[in-house]
Design a protein that fits this description.
This protein is of the alpha/beta class and 302 residues long. The chain contains 13 helices and twelve strands. Helix 4 packs parallel to helix 13, helix 6 (84-103) crosses helix 8 (136-152) and helix 8 (136-152) crosses helix 9. The longest helix is centred in the N-terminal third of the chain and has 20 residues, at 84-103. The protein is globular, with a radius of gyration of 17 Å.
Length: 302
């Protein structure tokens, strides 16, 4: 269903449930993601699979769908021989596919255009480390064209997500200025620091006075790291907090596989909500079953 409220207005009134990991749902549908473009490859080859994955999360109760553009960049597409104008069309397609699935739902469903970090384009796991050796101005130049293309496609919000480094967050916020679309800013963290090692108090402070930022928080991190991060995000910024951790398994970039045990617990939403979280969901390896449980718990709390 097409939203009648902005996402910011909804967050002021209630807790809103995000979707889970897009890639794991695509794998569950039989898709091969062993490619440097990851799920973005399907924008070219099998867009219907992406729409079906979004639809699975709508059925599970998700009310925000994150697009398949996390690893979709002009540079990445260029390496595959995709011309710039075609890459722009593919970025727009990522929003269109999510919008079609969203509009088919019976409740308001918003579309968040994913803007992943610079390291995601490298496809070597560096998005979990940050510190690329690039100045803020160069990172801003990298992010701006993709942000402009995604904003032009008409999402409800831009998800500046899985950001490992406060310097890159600064670049992303600068690149999003004037795009006409609200954003949320979400760091990948380890304990009370960004992946690059900056204190979260400093990292979240970048968004504190920015009216374009409607939520700030963490994603693509260990579930155990979320509780304290939510508290810090709320206290530093005074904004609604967004939180969507991984399953608890760890990505092995060299082996291109997951290892460890799942530790995602939907009941954590209670403590998140008490601390200020209003936009809640899951990231890698969290699927429709967990999102359905999260949605039920959220509805029960409302």
């Amino acid at each position: 269903m097409k939203p009648v409220r902005t996402l910011a207005a909804a967050l002021a009134e209630e807790t809103v449930v995000l979707d889970g990991g897009l890639s794991n749902q695509l794998v569950a549908q039989g898709c091969d993601l062993s490619d440097t473009l990851w799920s973005a490859r399907l924008l070219v080859d099998s867009p219907e699979q992406i729409e079906a994955a979004h639809a699975a999360y709508v059925r599970a109760g998700a009310r925000v769908l994150i697009t398949s553009s996390y690893q979709a960049t002009y540079e990445g597409f260029a390496r595959r021989g995709v011309a710039r104008d075609e890459a722009t069309a593919l970025l727009a397609r990522s929003v269109e596919l999510a919008r079609r699935a969203a509009d088919a739902g019976e409740r308001e469903v918003w579309v968040a255009a994913s803007v992943g970090p610079y390291g995601a384009m490298l496809a070597d796991g560096s998005e979990y480390r940050g510190r690329y050796g690039l100045p803020v101005a160069e990172l801003e130049r990298f992010h701006r064209p993709r942000i402009e293309a995604l904003a032009s496609a008409g999402p409800d919000v831009l998800a500046l997500e899985t950001v490992p480094d406060a310097d890159e967050a600064r670049a992303l916020l600068r690149a999003a200025e004037g795009c006409g679309v609200p954003v949320w800013l979400s760091y990948s963290v380890a304990g009370e620091q960004t992946r690059a090692g900056q204190p979260l108090t400093e990292a979240f402070a970048l968004a504190a006075g920015n009216d374009q930022v409607i939520a700030v928080g963490v994603n693509c991190c260990e579930p155990a790291d979320t509780d304290r991060a939510v508290e810090i995000a709320a206290s530093v910024t005074g904004k609604p907090v967004v939180v969507y951790p991984n399953s608890g398994e760890e990505w092995d970039a060299a082996a291109r596989g997951w290892r460890g045990q799942a530790a995602f617990d939907p009941s954590r939403v209670r403590s998140w909500g008490t601390s200020g979280a209003r936009l809640v969901g899951g990231c890698c390896r969290v699927g429709p079953a967990e999102i359905a449980e999260l949605a039920a718990l959220t509805a029960g709390a409302a």
